[in-house]
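Chain X:
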Amino acid sequence: MNVSSDAATNAYAAILAGGSGARMGNPEKPKQFFMLGEKPILIHTVEKFCAFPEFRKVLVMCPEVWLQQTQDLVERHCPQYKDRVVLVAGGVERNDTVMNAIAFLEQNCLVDDDTILVTHDAVRPFVSHRIICDNITAAREHGACDTVVPATDTIVESLDGCVISSIPNRSVLYQGQTPQSFNLRKLKELTSSLTDEERATLTDACKIFVLRGERVVLVEGDVANMKITYPQDMRVAASLMGK
């Protein structure tokens, strides 16, 4: 799917790079800085979004203590994009980080009622051109979208962690990926309306729309759009990179 320049003139990307390396066995180094081939995982992801001229800026949201190192990595590995990539400190939780991105854009960039924000995990470096295009288009047309793939395994619910509580119908279940993309001002408005109790239940920004009865359309993902979380994921990623 192609995105016309008119349709995406006011679009921004936010790469969420606030994860730690704990589950990768290295709590001192966030996993997005692990090397994948000749570049850190984060750089592979940033390059995917910088390849889109539709994005006015590509924000990299990372822990404040890693801002300078991230800037150095961008300048070393993709200096051609250094004027389009902006480093911004993330928040404590995922949705705090998204709100920090919105605050930065409102204070420093052109934002209007049609502005869209495409958010993506830094550790999903294999996101495709088609998925990004589809997110831009869906966010433009519907205000919110989530990238998903159909669930292939049976999902088992256990409320106590010991016995099965229910087994939902797999045919209506999907596994969430990213990007997740939104009309920027709508996302800010809905987030501001949440109670403390509702905020405590959040797992991602799409749930904000769901809690307020707003439609979130589905964008078809791809099993290759994997999230690198555990050491074994690095082996799979290295294999994909080799291809």
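Chain Y:
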Amino acid sequence: MAKQIDVENLNVYYGDFLAVQDASVNIAPLTVTAFIGPSGCGKSTFLRTLNRMHEVIPGGRVTGKVLLDGEDLYGSDVDPVNVRRTVGMVFQKANPFPTMSIYDNVIAGYKIAGTRKSKNDFDDIVERSLRGANLWEEVKQRLNRPGAGLSGGQQQRLCIARAIAVEPQVLLMDEPCSALDPISTLAIEDLIAELKASYTIVIVTHNMQQAARVSDRTAFFNLAGVGQPGRLVEYDETSKIFSNPSQKATEDYISGRFG
């Protein structure tokens, strides 16, 4: 079952630099939440704290809490590898493993973890995941060909299939359409709407029209100035953020007066 995310007073650091200051959000299960804001305001940094990818960066650390159905992901007894399995991630640039086939790309998470399964089990996982990413019909006759040979939009859907193959409960997407053409972007947006039935989804996007189209709730991040930490300015229903925001900074950003 998809998970609820509760972030409490989170501060995110790169070494001594405070990148995001005192952010708190509550993300309901089976919803799409969009993070918007100007470049450098901490959207992607904040996103990476939700599956402990931030700490992979040298000097990356957090204070505060990230709770997944009440369990603190940063608890001393929590294995970050298990966190990343539960909270999957799709990156800005499609990154299929270039030397692997489409088939092997989908099951890469199991192979990396050393999970043993029968060929029939893996066949089922590959078909289920590619169907879930709306890619099965396009690639079912060429599963043994390199994933890197697909178009950009197909590669991004392959990366989504790889992420959902290990059956996460949350899916993070860091600008998944920024490198795609409008037709591929629409395919990903349609896919997000379908995946919401099974996953809690959080997406970072610079495209405000996209945020308005795909998300239930929107978080607006902003910077007070150069060298200052990013802050979560406002978090509300997407319809309210785009029609009647509570903060002037949000209104200015959405109306194009800055950023």
